[in-house]
């Protein structure tokens, strides 16, 4: 219960970071993210996280950029765990916390109406009730600008994600492919429509998901 009371604090920190980031230069930007997840037909609030950090533009040419990001995410999840590391321990359902400092490098090249990039992430993940992990993530993406009129344009995109655990055991466990459209609405507000194909490892084997989705985005760095 104490963890859930931290929500107003992390919300305030993210809002302050967004406000302060508006005054920084193109070479240094503050980043913030707030995420809420609901399950069981939107009836159960089971996860949220807040993230703070910054991005430095390490290299910029007319067509090529390199960005380096250092961030910290704190995640709270309602789940089952064992109070004691024993086969006789009773399973408990409650909130547990993940602490995730992580680093990201993004390479991006602009070729006419195409934007092609690659993002590499390294994520140490520290938990309260399960062993710590180190995760590697890679995202290759392509976006194409479409001019719908003289004053309005949107993007078509394709993203390819791979995820692997480096510690405690090296294991490749998930592939995701996104394809869709990104529509600007007003100012930093945007609307996305996408299809996601996902294949991931679980017990007893590999599962595949096909998902159609939508999302609202806020990008204050435009």
Can you describe this structure in just a few lines?
This protein is mainly β. It contains 1 helix and 10 strands; from the N terminus they run αββββββββββ.
Report on the architecture of this protein:
Helices cover 7% and strands 70% of the residues. With 222 residues, it is mainly beta. A 10-stranded antiparallel sheet has the order 1-2-3-4-5-6-7-8-9-10. Strand 7 and strand 8 form a beta hairpin. It is globular and about 65 Å long. The two termini are 38 Å apart. The N terminus is likely disordered.
Distance between the termini: 38 Å
String of helices and strands: HEEEEEEEEEE
The description of the largest β-sheet is: 10 strands, antiparallel
Q: Can you give the mean pLDDT? A: 84
- Spatial order of strands in the largest sheet: 1-2-3-4-5-6-7-8-9-10
Identify low-pLDDT runs: 1-5
Rounded to an integer in angstroms, the radius of gyration calculated over CA atoms is 19 Å
Could you say which overall geometry the principal axes of the C-alpha atoms support?
A: globular
Classify the beta-strand content into a percent band.
Answer: over 45%
Tell me roughly what share of residues is in helical segments.
under 10%
What structural class do you assign from the helix and strand content?
A: mainly beta
Tally of DSSP β-strands: 10
Alpha plus pi helix count: 1
């Amino acid at each position: 219960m104490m963890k859930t009371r931290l929500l107003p604090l992390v919300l305030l920190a993210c809002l302050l970071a967004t406000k302060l980031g508006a005054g920084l230069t193109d070479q240094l930007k503050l980043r913030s993210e707030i995420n809420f997840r609901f399950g069981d037909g939107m009836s159960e609030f089971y996860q949220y996280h807040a993230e703070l950090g910054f991005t430095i533009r390490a290299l910029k040419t007319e067509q090529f950029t390199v960005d380096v990001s250092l961030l910290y995410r704190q995640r709270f999840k309602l789940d089952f765990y064992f109070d004691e590391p024993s086969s006789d321990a009773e399973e408990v359902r409650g909130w547990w916390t993940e602490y995730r400092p992580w680093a990201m490098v993004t390479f991006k090249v602009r070729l006419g109406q195409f934007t092609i990039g690659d993002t590499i992430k390294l994520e140490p993940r520290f938990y309260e009730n399960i062993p710590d992990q180190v995760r590697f993530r890679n995202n290759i993406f392509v976006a194409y600008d479409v001019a719908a009129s003289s004053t309005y344009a949107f993007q078509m995109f394709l993203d390819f994600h791979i995820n692997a655990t480096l510690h405690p055991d090296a294991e490749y466990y998930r592939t995701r492919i996104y394809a869709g459209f990104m529509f600007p609405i007003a100012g930093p507000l945007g609307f996305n429509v996408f299809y996601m194909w996902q294949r991931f490892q679980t017990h007893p084997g590999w599962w595949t998901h096909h998902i159609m989705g939508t999302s609202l985005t806020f990008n204050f760095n435009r």
